[in-house]
Amino acid sequence: MKPFDYLRAEGLDLASQQTAPDGAMAIAGGTNLLDLMKLQVESPDTLVDVNPLSMDQIADEGDGLRIGAQATNTATANHARVRSDYPVLAKAILAGATQQLRNKATTAGNLCQRTRCYYFTNIDQPCNKREPGSGCGAIDGIARLHAVLGTSSECIATYPGDMAVAMTALDAKVEIANGDGNSRTVPVRDFHRLPSDTPHIDNVLEPGEIITGVTLPAPVGGTQLYRKVRERSSYAFALCSVAAIVDMADGRISRADLAFGGLAHKPWHDPRIGELLVGEEPSLALYDKAADLLLEDAQGYGENDFKIPLARRALTATLCEATGVEA
Amino acid sequence: MPLKINNHPYDLPGDPRVSLLDFIRREAGLTGTKKGCDHGQCGACTVIVNGKRINSCLTLAVMHDGDEVTTIEGLGTPTEPSALQQAFVEHDGYQCGYCTPGQICSATAMLDEIAAGMPSDATDDVSGAPTLTDEEIRERMSGNLCRCGAYPNIVAAIREVAGAAS
Lengths: 327, 166
Fold this sequence. Notes:
The structure holds two protein chains of two kinds. Among the domains of chain A are: 47 residues, Uridine Diphospho-n-acetylenolpyruvylglucosamine Reductase, domain 2 (2-Layer Sandwich); 101 residues, CO dehydrogenase flavoprotein, C-terminal domain (Enolase-like, domain 1, 2-Layer Sandwich). By secondary structure, chain A is an alpha+beta fold. Helices cover 28% and strands 20% of the residues of chain A. In chain A, a hairpin with a 5-residue loop joins strand 6 and strand 7. Chain A has a five-stranded antiparallel beta sheet with strand order 4-5-8-6-7. Chain B is an alpha+beta fold. Chain B folds into two domains: 73 residues, Ubiquitin-like (UB roll); 83 residues, [2Fe-2S]-binding domain (DNA polymerase, domain 1, Orthogonal Bundle). Chain B is built from six helices and five strands; from the N terminus they run E-E-H-E-E-E-H-H-H-H-H. In chain B, strands 2-1-5-3-4 form a five-stranded mixed beta sheet. The termini of chain B are far apart. The mean pLDDT of chain B is 97. At the A-B interface, helix 2, helix 5 and helix 6 of A face strand 4, helix 4 and helix 5 of B.
């Protein structure tokens, strides 16, 4: 690990100013950042410890729920209202990492975690995300974990998390402070970017902006599921995951909020799928059409070709479970 | 505020790069806590900080001002082992023993999590209280790898202590 200056945040605005310069980074749980610093994928010259800001509260906000930026993944997954009103979020968090990591990992850190692409984490390999212009090793290389939706000729990395996939289905909002006393709100659905020709930029945060919390809208009825397909039954990143909030009325689907992990550079949300499903009677034929829509532009890169049929089956299985259709 | 390890106070290190793991082993001289992967993947470095289990390799010692750390040495001694330490011996819950301090710290905190009603990925209904099945033990211990493959005996040791506690 390269030497760096360590500062403790003293107030939000000052922390924002301290993290604004190139080479300065905020640290909270540190489970991803310190890992990357040991690999010299990240080598900040200043680390600003934001833990003294104590932004870890989880509290009712209207009929919804506000989760502080520094609430640990454990605190969120174990919160009584998350477990009862937003079970898709509890399930998604519990499907990720290990208890030791979830005890340190925070809401904001989880949103900002970097890809686990093998080329990104190996500084001896080319990677446009880590070193713009150096090329992409994964496109013609080892790509089992990689994206099949929204890729570019520069980058096929995936966003690796689970929590944000559930937050995407829930249409949660990210609160961001910018250091001059102002803040803005960005839907989780718009927080992460597609790689395009700037894959080194993961999300919409500007220099010096600090996430202060995530708000969940008022809870909705229906069945909430998180189906995660992975190489082993615990502690592995998603090859494909589906977060689903599905409700039925009079034998027809009345709500279908779906998001997908492991398929793209961001949690994937395609509003056309909900529009297709709502108002229809559940059937395998309908779910096949939904999968057609999800995957109409999907592109495999050899080793990850399997993700296209896998995503179809994961979507179908999730919808069947939610609506009682025999798979 | 000093950092406390097994109730003994220590001054924070001058170099912010020192991980809590390296601090425990080198500065405090408590070598029970092991370095396996040093990347949060194996769990050999698991310690309990303010009652919660974490990977000590993935946190900086300077970030633990005033925290209370418990390592394997703080759980029991050869003459007065904790219930889990005793159960690991009786059930042969190891072979080489390298992962064992992390396994026991992890299991110690895990039993508290179960007692507090925390769900896991193996819990069918996350809104309700979990019951400690073998599947639950395996899921909750998935952050602690054992290359010798002593898993069946590790589960047996934890099951025995959990059963005795409930």
